[in-house]
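Handout for the seminar on molecular recognition.
Each group receives one record of this type.
Step one: identify the two inputs.
Step two: read the structure output and locate the region that could contact zinc ion.
Step three: write two sentences on what you found, then compare them with the reference statements printed after the record.
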Amino acid sequence: MVYVENSEQEVNMKILAIETSCDETAASIVEEDNFRPVVLSEAVASQMAIHAESGGVIPNVAARLHVENLPAVLKKATDSQRLDYDAVAVTVGPGLIGSLLVGVAAAKTIAMAKDLPFFAVNHMAGHVYSAWLAPSETGDSKLETGLPQLPALFVIVSGGHTELVLMERHYRFQLLGATRDDAAGEAFDKVARMLGLPYPGGPAISELARHGRSDAIDFPIGLNERDNLDFSFSGLKGAVFHEIQKHPAPLSEHLRADIAASFQDTVARTISRKTVAALQSNPEVRSVCLVGGVAANKHLRVELEKAVKNARGDVQFHLAPLQYCTDNAAMIGAAAIFKHLFSKPDDWSLVEANPNFEL
Ligand code: KG4
Ligand code: ZN
């Protein structure tokens, strides 16, 4: 809530959020409504097509494109319904430094010029709070599907990170496990390249996997000891490479599909096992939430839900809406709403973009 000057009236806080940590230039206005984030506007300029040509994100190209695209994206997010806002939020890290700097500079400038509260948001906190967003295309409210209940366990699987995070209270994050090498999304992107598929690899692998058998090849699960909540995907990536080397090129369509399906299933089983282990050692957990770019993977969505329900029938399972799995500004606005409610704003003059910012 914010108070309007010269008025007794309470109005809901509206936050303009900016996200430029990697290859999406995004802005959104998110409003707080009774402890729920409601998305009022969104605009995004995706660089995906340009990076697809080079097979991955080239950092200085990404930064330059953010500079070029951010003004129009901001105009679209704020102009479309003549929306005003009471605060500014921005992703300050983790991410690519050149990309982060563009969004942070713009957000600081707006906060300074308009004398608005400023919220520095961790990109991973944004992914966490994507679980509170309702999918816009269905017009559903999270009232119907239910909001995550705390303590909640977050399975964050993105291109840069794979983490298990426990949240007992809003805006307090406890890291239970993380990847020691590649992130799950990175493994999808690298295996896709080995199979001659385009960037980003996740959607391409899941499409190819539809034609293959997930039990065709027995790939290894990294760090598969009991009670180890860290992840490792480099062994799996190496095993896929060796499998490809065993056969004369070009691989048959049939074999490529079997490799894609078996790889995808191994990632899903790895994530499910670690999640169940985390649930077993944290019996107070009431909700499990799957978020991040790789959470868009249908096979993972289905398999993780099954594993969680089998392990603990009393736990709720939540998925970030598909449109808010990959990077977006609405999730940054959602995180900022909860920072406003349960923590405090930041002094923009003391905030710096931080590529290694930890939760
Ligand atoms: O969260 P995100 O948009 O960016 C980061 O914060 O890293 O995640 C991007 C990652 C990419 O590696 C992409 O291949 C992966 O998410 N991804 C998927 C799918 N859609 C995107 N991985 C598996 N299956 C998908 N359907
Ligand atoms: Zn992300």
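Reference statements: The CA atoms of residues 226 and 280 lie 11 Å apart. The longest strand covers residues 36-46.
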